[in-house]
Amino acid sequence: MAPNEDQRYDPVPPIPTYEEAVAGGSAWHRESARSPIDNSQAAEAEAGEGQSLLPNSRHAFESTAPNPARGRRPRGYRPPTVETDDESSLFSSDSESDSGDEREADQVRREMQELEIDDSDMNSQNRGSSWGKRIGLSLSLPQWRWRWRWRLPRLRRRADGGNTGDTRGTAPAAEGQTAEPWFARPSSLPKFGSSALFLLVARTLAALIVLGLLYALFASDLFTNMARRMGSQMFDPESVRIHVQSSVDPRRIREHLKHFTSYAHLAGTEGDYALMEDTEMLFREYGLEDVTRDVYHVYLNYPKTGGRAVEILGEDGKAVWSAKLEEEEVGAKTTGHQTYAFHGHSKSGDVMGPLVYANYGSRDDFDRLKDIDTRGAIALVRHHDSQGDLAMKVKAAEMAGFAGCIIYSDPADDGFLKGTTAPKGPFVPADGVRRGTVSLMRWVVGDVLTPGWGSKEHLPRMTLDQTKGLVKIPSLPLAWRDAQVLLQHLKGFGQQVPEGWKGGVPDIDEWWTGNGSSPIVRLKNEQDEVLKQPIWNVYGRINGIEQGEKKVIIGNHRDSWAFGAADPHSGTAVMLEIIRILGDLVARGWRPLRTIEFASWDGEAYNLIGSTEYVEQYDDALRADALAYINLDRAVTGDTFHAAGSPVFRKLLLQVLNRVSDPHFNTTLRERWDRRNADLEGLGADSDYVAFQDIVGTSSLDLHFDGEGLPLHSSYENFEWMEHVGDPGYVYHTLLGQILGLLILELADRPIMPFDMPAYADKLSRWVKDLESWTQTKGADKAGGEKPFSLTSLKEAAEEITKSVREFSKWEQSWENSVLAASGWEPAGLGRRRCEYNARMATFESDLLDSAGIPNRTQFKHVIFGPQLWSDNNYNENEAYFPSIRDTVMSGNRTLAQLTVDKVANIIKQAAANLVN
C-alpha cells in the first residue's frame, strides 16, 4: 500500500515545548488545527474503494457535519496568551501579576481591539468555508471561500489631545474631579485638510458603497441563485447523473424484493400492515423527510374458508364433481400459506344454473349467444383478448342475464402452448389461478363507497346497493385444470363454437357453447365484507429549495394478490433503491430545485384505492402543484422496455434511454427502442396513474420491462420465479433504476422543466385523425335523418394547440440567451418568469379537465385521456383517446355526440389560450 501522505491520519503528537508551540509556522501548529476524519473514511480512502463523482477526488462529496475535534489541542494543552511572555504565569493568579505589567497588557489588548486584528488568513487552511462544500465535479464550479468581514468600518473620535483611546472609555479626570464620559464632552471635528478628515470621508464612502452593493446583490437575486447553487447546482449536474446511474446496486434490489415477497399481503391484512411499517422505516432510514402514514377506511372483501365452490350437480342435486380451486402450495416452507383464489369486490352468493361457454366474455361474444337462453345460467369465459378487464366480463355476463361467472386461464393465451410454464418458465401452469378484482373501475375508481372524495372515517359513505362500482352476480377465478372438466361436460349441448372460440385446453374433443339443458353448475362465493377496512399509504419527500411547493411524485403500490414478485414488488425494490441513492445525496448536501415525493400506495389490487383516495383528498393542491407522476407497478418481467404516458415525456425519455446500456445486447436502450420502432404508448386504465392523469390532470408516465409471459397474480409469481426466470441477476431492475433516477433528476432539478410540448401538439393532431377514422367505422358521419356529425371544431382546437405551443416554446430559448449573456446569472425577474413558465407547462394538462366529468362517470375529467366505457374489438383500448366522445358515439345519440365534440373542443382551445396568455 502506498504511504499515506495526509498527516491527518497520523497519531496525535506529544505535548510540545513552549518554544515549539510559539515557533511561527511550526508543523505542529499546522497539523493540530486540522480535523481528523472518520476511521471508516480513512480506511476507505486508503483502500481506494470510495464512490466519487470525480475520479481524481478522494471524497467528491465531503461531509459538512461539524467536527468537535476541529482545532482541538492535544491532551488539553493551552498555548500561551499574549498578556505575558512568562511561561509560569499561565497557571498563576491575577494577584501575582505586577501592576505595571497588567497596565501594559491592558494597553496591548486595547490596541489590538482598535486595530481589529483578524487572523482569518492565517487560519484559513484550518477552517472550512461557511458558504460551500468541497465537491468533486467533472466541470468544477469554483469553491467559494468568502473572506468578507461582515461589519462596517468603525468611526472613532480622537480625545485628549489626539490620543486614540477606547471609544467606550472615559476621559481622564483632574485630581479631585469626577471623570467625564466621552459622550458628554463637546465634540471636536477634524480640521479641513487633515488626515483625520480624509480618513472620515473615506470610511463614510466605503460604508455607502457597501450598502449600495448589498442592495444591488439582493435586488439582483444573487443570494437566491447562490442558495440554489450551494444546494443543488454546486453539485455539477452531469456528475450527479453519473453518480446516481453508477450507484444502483442489484444486490440491494434483490434483498428488498426477497423481503417484500416473503409472505402474502392482501390489502388491509396483517401482512400488508407489517410491510407498511417496513416501508415507513426504510423511508426514514434512507433519508426521506416528512415521512407520514395516511389511513383510509374503505370497502374490502375477503374469502372465507370453505366459502367457495364450483361443482357439477347430479340429477339429485348433489355434487358429482368439485373443482380444486386452490393452487398447489409453492412456498409454504418459506412464505407461509398463500392467499385463497378469489375475486376482489366480487358479489357474495350461492347460485346454480346450466353452464354456458362464452369465449372471452365481451359484449360481442355474448351477442353471439342471443339464440340461447342464458337467463340464470353460469357463464364460463377466459382471460385476455380485447376485453382484458375482468370486471367488464362479469358485467357483460350480468347484462346478458347470467346468474354467475367463472373466468379461467386458457393455455392458448398464457399457458404451455405459449412456452415453458412456471416455475421454470414465464407462463401459467395447469393449476395456476389468476386472481384479480371485478369492481367496475371504468365506472367508479377507488373506494366504491366514496366516489369523488377521500374515504376518511368521518366522511359520508354510500351503501353497497347505491354504488355503481360493483357487479351484481358472483364470480370466481379458475385454473384450466378445473375448467377442463367443465368444458368436457358441455359436449353435445348448444352449438359447436366457431374456430376463433376454441381455446387450448387439452383433451377437449369438441368445443360446444352449452345451453339451457347443459349440466347444472353450482357457484358458491361466501365472503367476509368489511365496509370500513383501514388501509395505509406511506409518503416521504426530499424538499426542493427553489419551488418547494411544486413536486414530482413517484408511486408504487405495496399490496398484492399473492406474493407479488413482479406485480408490484419489482417496482417496490427499484423505488427503494432510488430512495436510498437520493437520500445519500441529500446527506452530502445536495438538494433538488423542486420537491421529490415518494408514495407507497395500498389497496391498488382491488380498485386503485390508495392512490385514488389520496388524489381525491388533495385534488386542489395536486392540480396546482403536482408537476409529474411516475408510476412503477409491474415493473420487470423481461428484457423489453416499454413506457406509456403523456407525450410531454417523449423527448426526455429518449435522452435518458441514450444513456442507459443493455449489457445483454451490448447496445443502448435507445437503439433497441428504435430497432422495434417503439413509441410512447397510451396509458390505459389499470394502475395508479389513473387518478393522477384522469382526475387532476397530472402528466403521468408508467415504466416497465416486459417479457414473453408472466404467471400474474398466481402463487407462482414469487421470489424464486423472479430469481430464475423473470430477471436473473436483476439486470433489468438495475437498468430501470437508472432510468428512474435520471428521469427524477431531470424533472426535479433542471431550471426549466424538460416537457416536450411540441410532441403533445403533434400527438393531439394524430389522435383527432384516429378518432375521425373510428367514427366513420361506427357510421357517425352518415347524415341519416339527423344533423351530420362533424369533428371540425376538434380539428380547429388541435390547430390552436399547435400555434400556442410554437409561441410558448420560444421563451425557453430567450431565457437561455439571457442567462448566457449574464455569464450564468439570472436576474430576479427572469427567475420568477422561469418558475411561472414551468408552472404553465405543468398545468397545461390540468386545463384539459372538464369539471363536470364524463357523463355517468364523473370522476374521470380529462377530455383526452381516460378509460373507455366498454372495450371495442376494433381498437386497442390503451390507444383510444377522447373517452367522452367515444361514449356518446357508441350510445348512438348523434346529437349528444356532436355537443360533446364541441364541448371538448372548447376546453382544448381554452387550454391553448392559457398557455400563452
Automatic annotation (TrEMBL):
Domain (PA) ranges: 351-437
Q: Is Secreted one of the keywords?
A: no
Per the record, which residues fall in region Disordered?
1-108, 159-180
Q: Which GO molecular function terms does the record list?
A: carboxypeptidase activity
**Membrane-traversing stretches:** 196-218
Instruction: Answer whether the UniProt record assigns the keyword Nuclease to this protein.
Output: no
Q: Which InterPro entries does this entry report, sorted A to Z?
A: PA_dom_sf, PA_domain, Peptidase_M28, Peptidase_M28B, TFR-like_dimer_dom, TFR-like_dimer_dom_sf
Q: Which UniProt keywords apply?
A: Membrane, Transmembrane, Transmembrane helix
Q: Which Pfam family, giving just one, matches this sequence?
A: PA
Checking CDD domains in the record gives: M28_PSMA_like (cd08022), PA_GCPII_like (cd02121)
Q: Where is the Peptidase M28 domain?
A: 537-720
Q: Which residues form the Transferrin receptor-like dimerisation domain?
A: 790-915
Similarity comment: Belongs to the peptidase M28 family. M28B subfamily.
In its UniProt entry, what is this protein called?
Uncharacterized protein
Give the source lineage, highest ranks first: Eukaryota, Fungi, Dikarya, Ascomycota, Pezizomycotina
